[in-house]
Amino acid sequence: MTESAAAFTWDVPAGFNFARDVVDALARDDRRGLLFVDAAGGRRDYTFAQIAEQSKRWAAVLRDAGVRKGDRVVVVLPKIPDWLFCMTALLRMGAVAVPSAEQLRAKDLLYRANHSGAIAVVAHASNAAEFDAMRPDAETVKTYLIAAGARDGWTAVDPLLATAQPWDGEQTRADDMAYIVYTSGTTKDPKGVVHSVAYTFAKRMQAAIWFDVKRDDLVWCTAGTGWAKSLWNVLLGPWSCGAPIVLHEGGFVPEERMDMLRDLGVTVLCSAPTEYRLLAKLPDLGERWKLPKLRHCVSAGEPLNPEVIELWKKAFGLTILDGYGQTENTLLVANRPGTDVRPGSMGKPTPGHDVAVVDENGNLCEPGDVGDIALRGDPPSLFRGYYKNDDETASSRRGEWYLTGDRAQVDDDGYFWFVGRADDVISSGAYRIGPFEVESALLEHPAVMESAVVGSPDPDRGNIVKAFVVLRPGHEASDALARELQEHCKRVTAPYKYPRDVEFVAELPKTRSGKIRRVELRQAELRKKGATAASGFV
User: Given pLDDT bands bounded at 50, 70 and 90, which one contains residue 536?
Assistant: First the structure.
């Protein structure tokens, strides 16, 4: 792969394996590959050689537990080194990882396990109880592996790793399946996005072109495990460029984050817009914290407010660069280093991606006209399809174009300007939340007859989840009931999905065929708050 946009070619090796061709190759040098900071603030360095050995030990443990090439494995681990070791081990042996977020509940996990046909689960002691709750209905899972603890009915990984003989794994090809990543749906169940081994090679483009990663950088992407962003920006990208990464087990605390950026000597930062917004609110930001080693910042998740970009630039002299992509692909459009950044613009297409705005017939829109953001062709960075869902895969295409589901316009100079989402997925903080999942949880409550969930503009999170609820006869609207519904959602589905605002209504707007018109509710919220819609940014 060349880095020049004009001479760009992908050149994916036919027999590529990220664990062997990247991690093991880096292990030949005695260099730091990982700086881990635990929840208590303790630090530990891992060399690439140590990372490679632990990856091989994990591969041996997984093999001995019955996992074979092509098998699907659900992985739910926090931001600890074992997540990296396990994920690279699965790549090493040609198994298919189903990365899932820690916050998911039994219902969410059961769907992913059954739909993917997973034969094994790798979990942490902190979330094993959710798997135990789904276990009676898990159709294909035979093996339950637990890290950092022991539990009845589970195989403890830690003692096995201590005695395992490192195993190099299996040969893999570029077209072998590598991941099934589940993305939030709007009116249907989550879709399983299939990525091949070629995708793991393609991610180096993002790190080189957008992150501008060099071998001597220290890269920190703050995304949690279980999300596409963590695959791109934590695992695959920086190591593809030979750079060490930071992994922080703890949560986001603004003052602590700034202290760590300074004390760890981070040079490249990738954070969610919500985090940048909260950091920008810290008093005396540029005076209180000096970050002489930080040289490059990018934002992933949704558009970042121009005022936050300006505050950050005033404090540190650095322009935060936005990037646009999806679970189904990679960095498609971006503001890149060394280019003219136009405030509010998405930037321009990245090398290797023929991105355009097209009309309903697949024709290029004229500058200024609003249309669908689309990607032409089949680059290795694009997903292979939705798992067990040929209809959805086919509907994502319009002739030679893959449709992202987002709308934009292009100006006369080729800059993209985001307009809005074509679907109803809510971008809130670093999360993408499907209304259907929250509505389903609400409908399980005996007081709820109907519900509709939309994003409501919020200055810090971009959007919050708002629920419009029609009550069953015999139930009265109250603040207490609203709080009860919120707590119910936290128990039934992942806590980050709960509606932060609940409004009781007599009826919901619907089409003639009876479908709920969420678009009317969204537009009403936009008018009420005088805001603009958030996007499906990376």
Answer: very low
Give ∠ CA 497-502-505 in degrees, rounded to 5.
Answer: 135
Cα four-point dihedral sign 113, 119, 122, 123: positive
526 pLDDT exceeds 50? yes
Q: Quick check: 6 pLDDT over 70?
A: no
Collapsed DSSP state (helix, strand, coil) of residue 271 = strand
Going along 232-353, which residue ranges are E strands?
245-248, 268-271, 296-299, 321-324, 333-334, 348-349
Cβ pair 420, 407 in contact under 8 A: yes
Asked which of 7-16, 247-256, 476-485 is least confident by mean pLDDT, the reply is 7-16
Residue 221 pairs with which residues in a beta bridge?
Answer: 270
Tokens describing residue 150: 């022991």
Buried b (16+ CB within 10 A) or exposed e, 297-332: bbbbbbbbbeebbebbeebbeebbbbbbbbbbbbbb
Q: Assess contact for 441 and 492: CB atoms under 8 A.
A: yes
Average pLDDT value for the chain: 91
CA separation for the pair 249, 251 (Å, rounded): 7
Residue 235: which of 427, 92, 38 has the closest Cα? 92
Predicted confidence (pLDDT) per residue in 495-507, tens digit:
999 999 999 999 9
CA distance 50 to 351: 34
C-alpha angle 342/345/348, rounded to 5°? 95
The CATH homologous superfamily of the domain defined by 18-41+48-197: ANL, N-terminal domain (3.40.50.12780)
Fold assignment, 321-421: Luciferase; domain 3 (2.30.38)
Local confidence band at 535 (pLDDT 50, 70, 90 cut-offs): very low
CATH homologous superfamily of 426-529 equals ANL, C-terminal domain (3.30.300.30)
- State the number of CA atoms in the 13 A half-sphere of 288 facing the CB: 14
* Location of each CATH 3.30.300.30 domain in the chain: 426-529
pTM of the model: 0.86
Under 8 Å between Cβ of 446 and 432:
no
**Residue 511 — very low, low, confident or very high, per pLDDT cuts 50/70/90?**
low
**For residue 438, what are the contacts with CB-CB under 8 A and spacing of at least 6?**
451, 453, 465, 467, 489, 493, 497, 498, 499
Alpha helices (H) in 37-176, listed in sequence order: 48-64, 81-93, 106-116, 128-134, 157-163
pLDDT of residue 7: 63
